[in-house]
Amino acid sequence: MTKSARAIALETLIRVFRDGSYSNISLNNNLRGSQLSQTDRNFATRLVYGTIQYKIYLEYQLKGLVKTKLKEPYLKPLLLMSAYQIIFLDKVPNRATLNEANKLAKQFGGRHSSGFRIANGVLHALIRRGTILPDKIDSVKYLSVKASVPEWLVNYIITNWGEKRAASILSSINMPAKNSVRLSTLSDQKQTIAELKKLNFAPQDSKLASNELILSHGGVSTTPPFKEGKLTIQDEAASLVVEAFDFSGDEKVLDACSAPGGKTAQIAEYLPHGQVTALDIHEKKLRLVRQNANRMHVANRVVTKAMDARKVDQYFSGQQFAKILVDAPCSGLGLLRRKPEIRYTKSMKDLLNLQKIQLDILDHVSKILEENGELIYSTCTFAVEEDEKVVEIFLKNHPKFELRPFKLAKIESKTGMLKIIPDSYGSDGFFIAKFVVRG
Ligand SMILES: C[S@@+](CC[C@H](N)C(=O)[O-])C[C@H]1O[C@@H](n2cnc3c(N)ncnc32)[C@H](O)[C@@H]1O
């Protein structure tokens, strides 16, 4: 029997909630063996990501309506997924959601399960009652449920940016991510834009970054301009990191944490006579860096090496690089829009553990930077512990280094640090710090 989009979504959600599986990997595995049309695949994907994104909100809606212990492992994910459809998917009639929930309960619970009765009762009650929110007096709880973000993270954002800004940041991270692409500087950009228009992607210039376009919808990775390496999928804020270097074109550059290689290819475009050495601790991921470099026609400017960046000074002892990028492993809080489960898997402790790794990497790479060379440290998080605090501690421990202000095509940093929070431009959240080492 071919599985429906809802059955595939439910199977994925059971794995994610019960076993802690990654949603993208689990969903791809389930979709791979399926016979679903593209529309049904899109629907299954929306159900999985939407249910995960709004888990706290949906649990709050169901809490008072579930009067019995949900013993069967499929029941809670089924209720959450059905509540998501009832509350968020206007085009799906409630009748269809109820009928399908009934069928799924019988399919996943077996003949003797009474799960379908529970699902029926709870979902009917939800439709009758409508949605609810906690009292605004408890602003942390209110924002936590409304934006479906754990209370510790709401508290963290309020502490650092105040309550008003927190509401804006939290609402922005539930907006759909933009479909941003970066045009290769090695190809004819006007012609690529014309091709994208012809393919009905209605490209618009980014307000934040040069070479970046915002497309009207996804799916560009299956089109000729993507396959021919005329563009790549890269967020606007992410693309600013490499732009902050001042390249001369013939230098040796180290990309210390490079996979999957979006920034490696971007660096290589600026090096007609130079080379970028791309490291990553995971050998397997370097295949993606090479694929990317090949597709973007810069493979002859890139060498890859599997290595822990905390060992670079041993391995490259006696060698030096003119420019070093540390696009560090981080909590990824700036990517909450694209990776909905990050909000549930990270904790305050993670931010501090990551800070230690980030400082360690910076400490080791700083030993192989040429005199007057440039070091860029970047993260895709807005956590102060991983951003400004790392800069502060690094500078304290490395007095020869200083921050260097930088001016990009559409934005500048007067301090040498640039922090893009997701609500500022509707992009991913990013942090960039540019250092130079004095001779
Ligand atoms: C934020 S991602 C890099 C994204 C990449 N720069 C890009 O633009 O496509 C961080 C990378 O660091 C790698 N990593 C983590 N710890 C590392 C270490 N100690 N040394 C080198 N790479 C590491 C991870 O495997 C991951 O691929």
TrEMBL record:
UniProt GO BP: regulation of DNA-templated transcription
Residues covered by the SAM-dependent MTase RsmB/NOP-type domain: 169-438
GO MF annotation list: RNA binding; rRNA methyltransferase activity
Superkingdom to which the source organism belongs: Bacteria
Pfam families tied to this protein: Methyltr_RsmB-F, NusB
GO cellular component: cytoplasm
The protein's role, per its UniProt record: Specifically methylates the cytosine at position 967 (m5C967) of 16S rRNA.
UniProt protein name: 16S rRNA (cytosine(967)-C(5))-methyltransferase
Phylogenetic lineage: Bacteria, Bacillati, Bacillota, Bacilli, Lactobacillales
